[in-house]
Amino acid sequence: MPSVGVKLYSVFFKFLLKHRLQNRIQSEDSSSSSSSDPFGVTTRPEESVSPPNPLFTDGVATKDIHIDPLTSLSVRIFLPESALSPASGSHSGKSRSFNSLAGSDLLLRRNSHGSSNSLSSHKSEARRSSYAHTTTASASSSSEEVYRGYAPSSSGKCRKLPVMLQFHGGGWVSGSNDSVANDFFCRRMAKHCDVIVLAVGYRLAPENRYPAACEDGFKVLQWLGKQANLAECNKSMGGGLRRGGGGGEVSKHVVDAFGASLVEPWLASHADPSRCVLLGVSCGANIADYVSRKAIEAGQNLDPVKVVAQVLMYPFFIGTVPTQSEIKQANSYFYDKPMCILAWKLFLPEEEFSLDHPAANPLVPDRGPPLKFMPPTLTIVAEHDWMRDRAIAYSEELRKVNVDAPVLEYKDAVHEFATLDMLLRTPQAQACAEDIAIWVKKYISLRGHEFSY
Q1: In the chain, at which end, N or C, are there fewer CB atoms within 10 A of the end residue's CB?
Q2: What is the CATH number of domain 4-31+42-141+156-444?
């Protein structure tokens, strides 16, 4: 059973969440006559956020980028220090990042389901006063300000890392990509998996209902592909954006033809979009699954981006016909079923509300594309979470069509046990991060299976 501290915090958490959801409903009712603002919000005033730090003070550098001029959509880039190692010495970064895992108590982990054969602070004033700032001053030689952060060398010999798109949780109406808890979790994943993490700041409900958050997730995937093409264009023009002169004018003209944004130097130097992993937490897992399906439909239009795997951490699935866990654990810790239904009412348009909506229930018929085209999918579930059975059932359907779709169930765990602020430093959360890293490396490693940590 969960500890007494977890139980007490759960009571307080539920009270606070219920209060906030009711406030969202009241504020929506009071402004029902006015149309919703398409620009939207990606964080709430009550959220404790962590400012970006473009220095490798703890082994990971971060920066925030607003990527859509029409909405509040943004990303926080997490670049691990291992990216600075030369390609030939890539082992050093990995061994350093996994040293801290050697003594973890892995007995708390889980039971395995399926084909998992390889699984043996305070509020910051600096949050985003202007959504237009991008901290990419290193790409602009005309700026007289010194960029006080990491700037890649122009030698073109930087180490390339896989990219992980991360979608935070929060029941559609709260949470943010720059919250203290999400920042800590993404730093951990960047180090353990040895990847560049792009934490997506999608628009929240009820200001922006379905499909806004899901479409934001796919926009980031498209933006990643655009960045790869911009970088290749700039490279083929001889890096004219930095050199100036006649060549620079031509290069800038071609780059501008792609759109308003310039090359993001961290991604241009270090990102390998052909090894892209999606990771979603709670409702973020629903977004990840949506983005995977859209990526399949887009096909080669996303080149060079390729989604090679996805990780669904305690997905926010639900349905009209209740599962056994939905009946027995409806009043489980932190997120009980009645409050989650209220969150779904705030997220789905009123005329579309249904617990069997394709965004809510992954097992509804005719939910394209066919499951056999889905990427390998690791599902994380908690023993004391009423959503666990439907997530397991979805994984079983994937395995029926020969998709690698293992499930890890963590004993005595609750919803968001590896990502909630007060639980992030527990041995179980640490073990979960290690498990994810081991599985993900099957699909992002250039050498196949990697267990020499």
Answers
A1: N
A2: 3.40.50.1820
SS3 for 402-451 is CCCCCEEEEEEEECCCCCCHHHCCCHHHHHHHHHHHHHHHHHHCCCCCCC
| Contact indicator for 176, 201 with CB cutoff of 8 Å | yes
Ordered by start, the domain boundaries in the chain are 4-31+42-141+156-444
pLDDT of residue 448: 54
* Residue 281, strand partner residues: 313
**What confidence category does residue 38 fall into, taking pLDDT thresholds of 50, 70 and 90?**
confident
Strand partners, 37: none
The active-site residue, picked from 168, 251, 415, 435, is 415
DSSP label at residue 376? P
Tens-digit pLDDT profile for residues 239-272: 544 444 344 444 444 445 444 457 899 999 999 9
Catalytic pick from 282, 325, 332, 395?
282
Catalytic annotation present for 113: no
**Which token pair is 406?**
């293992």
Annotation says 282 is catalytic: yes
Give the mean pLDDT of 408-420. Answer: 94
**330 or 113, which is more confident?**
330
DSSP secondary structure letter of residue 115: S
What pTM does this model have? 0.83
Q: Which residues of 379-393 are buried (b: 16+ CB within 10 A; e: fewer)?
A: bbbbbbbbbbbbbbe
Q: Which is the catalytic residue, given 289, 336, 385, 404?
A: 385
**For 158, which DSSP code?**
P
- 385 catalytic? Reply is yes
